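Reader question, answered in our methods column.
A reader sent in the components of a multi-part assembly and asked whether the whole thing could be modeled at once rather than chain by chain. We filled in our standard form and ran it. Here is what they sent:
COMPLEX SIZE: two components
ENTRIES:
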Amino acid sequence: MTALILFSTGGSFKVVFDAFPPEYLLYGGALMKRTLFTAFLLVILSAVLFASGADETKGAQGNGEPHVFSPDNPVTIDAWIVTSQTAPSPDNKISKLLKEKLGVTLNYDITTPDQQLDRIGIMLAAGSIPELVGSTDQQARLVQGGALLRLDDYLDSGRWPLLAEHVRPVRKKLTWTGGGVEDGLYQFPNYNRFYGNPPIMSPIHWGTAFWIQKDVLAFHNYPSLENMTLERYFDMIESYMKANPTIDGAKTIGFSFPMQGRVWGLTNPPLFLAGYPNDGGVMVDDGQAKIYANSKYAYDYFKFLNMAHDRGLVDPESFTQTLDQYLAKVASGRVLGVHDQRWSFGTANDALVANGQYERTYAATMPTFPGKKPYYADRDVLNINQGFGIASNAENPELLLDFLEIMLTPEWQTILSWGIEGEDYLVDENGLFYKTQEMRDNFNNLTWKQDNRLEALLDIMVKRQGELPGGNAFAAGDQPGEFFDSLKQYDKDFLAAYGLQTWRQFVNDPPPNPAHYPAWQISPPDGSAAQVANQQLEDAAQRYLSEAVLTDPARFDSVWDEYMAAIDSIDVAAFEAVITEGVQARIRAAGGE
Amino acid sequence: MGITTSPGVSAKKRPWRVTFKKQWQLYLMSFPMLFYLLLFAYVPLLGWVMAFQEFRPRFGLSPIGQVMSNKWVGLENFKTLLDNTTILGQRFLQSVVNTLGQSILILVLGFFLTIMLSLLLNELRLTGVKRFVQNVLYLPHFLSWVIVAMLASTALSLPGSGGFLNDFLLKVGIVDRPIQFLADPGYFWGIVAGTHLWKNLGWNTIIYMAAMTSIDPNLYEAASIDGANRYQKMWHVTLASIRPTIVLLLIINIGMLLTSGFEIQWLLGQGVNIVRSENIDVFVLRYGIKMGNFSLATAAGILRTVVSILLLTGSNFVARSLKQETLF
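And here is the structure of the entire assembly that came back:
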């Protein structure tokens, strides 16, 4: 009986236990947490009985004095952050500064993106979540499950002017209307809210391309990349491969792509080859979303890839390797071409740069089917359902908002992004920031960054992208002068050979995004037929496309027919209907403004 | 083995209260374990209500509040899983087949090889050598599955990526072009069984070895006098003496046939081998928990538990009718 009472008080602990047999609990130290949790329950049994935390009314929203951050008044903030960046080292320079100047100590709890959904399930069911919640969940499960605090009343109170201004121009887009909870704003976006008019844009293209090693282009004497086709792309790779069967002693790999957790590495190319922008798994025409997995474009691409595999150009391990193994291969410099998004192989690129292998880093190419115009690059898309929110059971949400507010001041934005003046950057007579070569090298040094940068925090933090007051770019790499000065001689020569100034100029100049764009942000609700169909489309693609590419060219068509039969048995219409509905809603919303 | 019951011990109808008074210290000492079992094995069963609901977790609600706030759907979730006209149903049933295939392979291979290895170890005369061999055999058991999966993935990859298995096969001349083990679903059950054996074979010998140490040496002596050679002693004395242990372990393992592990399938499973790699645990994680569908996950868990209980009682019944040792 005691056990029952005990149990019924402790959040839905049973949910977790039943859903996760012991094998899962051992994973990621969750078992220990569970044991601690039980011990905790035993000790404060009576206290828990009366504390039904969720119903507490948060009375004075925004009234009262802002927290005075000072070392005399130390606070500790528990922050959950979803990022692929690593935690800072214990004696990190900026962590120290936060403590010395503001008295703030951050307790990091970092989850990698691929583990995120597991953690969210546990957090929801257990009713326990760190107070500052930095997630990147497209499905907005935390919001729907009621784990995040609705921020609208706080923002309207006027106590946090910077945060309010941060979301003002994009409030409508950020507002959650997907049900489960009251409509409203629950998360501050972590990327692509731009300041400045016009904002300083990144000279780097962070999106999709068929990337090709710079040395391959140099080998072919910097050929024009206009009107690129798949044939030319793979021919360039093939002839380079023949001339360089090994790179640094390891076998050269022609072409690869990420697959584990990033299945778009395999499935998205037909979209771009057909001249569509990145709408995810669908092509949108006249407000109607349609999958393209069963289209002629898909057939043509995978037929081509199958032939390329037969020519020995496609790494067969692309279909079986983990994301880490893929990134390690790219970082080793022996992969000549990848279809990927630039941010996705960012860490591999950093490793190549840190090694000084500039000729092994990549330039963007945009192959298309004949007669199609490339639309690889889009205008930067505001992140929604990503970034910091406040846990709905946080003891002191005002304090957390105060903290985010102070982080959004130009002073702290500069510290988070550029570092400390005199140590990490210098200021010229016009007030523009610049760096010495040593400072730049530090920023490319992975160990140095752990000691001197808060990259994990910055990844999810509200950011003044575009322009800081004083005409400086938010990110050092985006500073116009700084970008070119920081280029190594190899990259300067490379750009000069193409007569270009930035990496962004290798891709198309994007027109304004369509009103619905991007459709990949529209996700079918949990448990719906559309969601199951989406998952099944993904599974079928992984299974049959792997086989289709790896098989003997003579068998390609029969595998393809199996794939089409598999798609036919999936409730595709339900999926397309949900996405079309979302597209229509966005078009209406844009028209109404 | 403390699990066996022998008819002689059963108490002679003594009133319960008298027994308790006499042995209350023992009862007291068993209480923590009982409490533990209750809390971690029985109380969680309350969560089974989720299987009959369309469950969406709500943050901060008490368990009763969670249950009350969700819609009841009856046996809908079970129907979804067992309906082999839908893809989801086909997938679940395929995952059951995979689980059974993988664990039967593990069980059969593991069963014979463990006993053989135990017999061999038992025959080692030099204690020092025996200890050393045992320690070497136990070591893989202490590696995390994540590490085992990475080792396996490297070992099975192409020669250029460190795939020494392919290197070996090529050098010996068994194959003329490298095999992509992980890309061909046909190999996956074997990979699962292989990694389990590699990791746990040595460790699993412990129970048999313990049983063997309790064999009366007089039996060996008597067998020698009767003219038994070494193999005959292994067969007629050692193996015969550990038979109860063997049967018990077999019954227990049959009860766990629907659990074929999780990590290897999760870490090495990819779209290309999913037909053979996705077992019940992975299915539950991908289509249940990852998609926020806890009801489906629970329903799958219940089905598994029910079948496991049937298997366990079934094999126990068979053992009893064959006049062998039984679990209960």
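What stands out: Chain A has 28 helices and 14 strands. The two ends of chain A are 59 Å apart (CA to CA).
Send us your own complexes using the same form.
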